[in-house]
């Protein structure tokens, strides 16, 4: 497993049983009015295959296409994968296929990557937990924020991403957790990006609550979560609203308010199969307030991603 290169392919198709790995690429137009999320990946198990899943800002359901697993190829130590005629890398994506009965084509060029800072004590978003080889699900941040140039056509819809912003993360392992919450946004007026993920996870024979995330704002990255001895508290939860607060070890606080809009239906992995139906809102609004000894400011964003699955009481 490439602890210091989480963006690259981590698996072994021939050896890994009931394994999945997927990259989540969100692309938002410059005016922030439209987005396209493309999720390439692979899954082994009862029905081993590669896949591309896609959903748009104007739709309530995703489109999914499977490919023979032999159509998947990946370079070592770098993010560079191909599925049939489609390629995904740190340089950009090239699409030339049909998904859900609609033609998907286009090319995006990525630039000005904002990578998550790391060191031997914090090699990825999971901190020291990245070193454990037995976790059910691993999470990685490939790009906190980057610039886009190019266009995508999906069926009759045409998207021009010139001047837009992108975000990439990924998951890999045996299965998604039984319960989790996930919040992500990079559509702010300033160069800002945010992600928080919390879950109930099996660990050394018992279930534990854990969370991780980052707040990138104007060239400064704050990493937080269980690996950083941070605390997460739920202040309010309604059907379409959630309010959380993260307390950091240095006494800083990050207050997060999310107002949830419509949901997209997605497929997610569970024990070797893409057999879990989850709902993700990708056009929610978010307000973040950051407070420390010398700063106290708020930023608001749109096109925020939000997922909550399972029992919230298992997470908080």
Provide an overview of this structure.
Helices cover 0% and strands 62% of the residues. It is mostly beta strands and 316 residues long. The model has no long low-confidence stretch (mean pLDDT 93).
How would you summarize this macromolecular structure in one to three sentences?
By secondary structure, the protein is mainly β. The protein is built from no helices and 23 strands.
Topology:
Elements: E1 20-28, E2 35-43, E3 49-56, E4 63-67, E5 72-74, E6 80-83, E7 86-89, E8 92-99, E9 102-114, E10 137-154, E11 157-160, E12 165-173, E13 179-185, E14 187-188, E15 192-203, E16 206-217, E17 220-225, E18 231-238, E19 241-247, E20 253-259, E21 264-270, E22 273-291, E23 296-309
Keywords for this structure?
globular; 12-stranded antiparallel beta sheet; 316 residues; mainly beta
Please give the share of residues in helix.
under 10%
Roughly how many Å apart are the termini? 30 Å
Overall mean pLDDT stands at 93
Which strand-content bin applies to the residues?
over 45%
Specify the number of helices.
0
Number of strands: 23
Global morphology? globular
The low-pLDDT segments are: none
Main pleated sheet:
12 strands, antiparallel
**Order of helices and strands, N to C?**
EEEEEEEEEEEEEEEEEEEEEEE
Which structural class matches the secondary elements?
Answer: mainly beta
The rounded Rg comes to 18 Å
